[in-house]
Amino acid sequence: MAVEDLYSAQVAVDPENDTLIADAPVQVFAKNDMSRETPLRVFEPASGVEIPVLRSNRYGIIQQIRVEGDPAAVVFKSGPYEVEAQSKFGVLFEFGLTPENLAAAIAAPEAAAAAGAAQATVAAGHAAEASTQRAAAAIAAAEASSAAGAAAAAAADAAAARDVLQALADAAGAPLAEDPDDPGTFVILNPAALTEDPAEPGTFLNGGS
């Protein structure tokens, strides 16, 4: 937000007769322009339109103006008469409160609010990311637990089946042997049914006649 300095309304006075001067042409000069040769441009404060010739009204009142460069003090001159005037913020400027500093002071709360909102957004993003990571870890842990539970259940079932098979083998008085074609699977061997394979001496068949 830009801060524009203004000059309040002035009066055109004839100090010799102590009267107001109507329709008096007025020029504005920088304080250090001792020759009064380079008048400053003046503008309508609201519209920013340049005023070609500044004049007092019929009551001798010089309207409020803005001066190019926003100087803190200028000299109003009409005919042989002149007077120094300070701007609306001229006194403040003497203490370092320039338009730039004033604008910065006005903008500071807005900037702080924007920074706070940005930090909150970043924090929310981090929190959401952490929550997603925790959820993924929980899902992975649940899957691992489920797989481990399934493996344990399968092992328990296999052990129970082997126990049943062993009980049957013991009841039949036959040995229990692991199936070479299907590791982990056991069969009950009937020694009485074992016969040597005539096609391959030294190899025995289970269930031969």
**Cross-sheet strand order for the largest sheet:** 6-4-9-10
Mean pLDDT: 78
Largest sheet: 4 strands, antiparallel
Shape: rod-shaped
The end-to-end span amounts to 109 Å
SS elements, strand count: 14
Order of helices and strands: EEEEEEEEEEHHEEEE
Helix/sheet category: alpha+beta
Q: Give the number of domains.
A: 2
The number of helical segments is 2
Strand content: 15-25%
Give a structural overview.
With 209 residues, the protein is an alpha+beta fold. It has two domains: 13-95, no CATH class; 98-172. It is built from two helices and 14 strands; from the N terminus they run ββββββββββααββββ. The protein has helices spanning 90-93, 99-172; strands spanning 10-11, 13-14, 19-20, 25-30, 42-43, 54-55, 61-62, 66-67, 73-78, 81-86, 176-178, 186-188, 194-196, 204-206. The strands form six sheets. It has a four-stranded antiparallel beta sheet with strand order 6-4-9-10, with no helix packed on it. A hairpin with a 2-residue loop joins strand 9 and strand 10 (81-86). The relative contact order is 0.09. The mean pLDDT is 78.
Provide a compact summary of the structure:
The protein has 2 helices and 14 strands; from the N terminus they run ββββββββββααββββ.
Keywords:
209 residues, alpha+beta, 2 domains, four-stranded antiparallel sheet, two-stranded antiparallel sheet, 14 strands
Outline the fold blueprint:
Blueprint (H helix, E strand, L loop, with lengths): L9 E2 L1 E2 L4 E2 L4 E6 L11 E2 L10 E2 L5 E2 L3 E2 L5 E6 L2 E6 L3 H4 L5 H74 L3 E3 L7 E3 L5 E3 L7 E3 L3
Antiparallel strand pairs: 1-7, 2-3, 4-6, 4-9, 5-8, 9-10, 11-12, 13-14
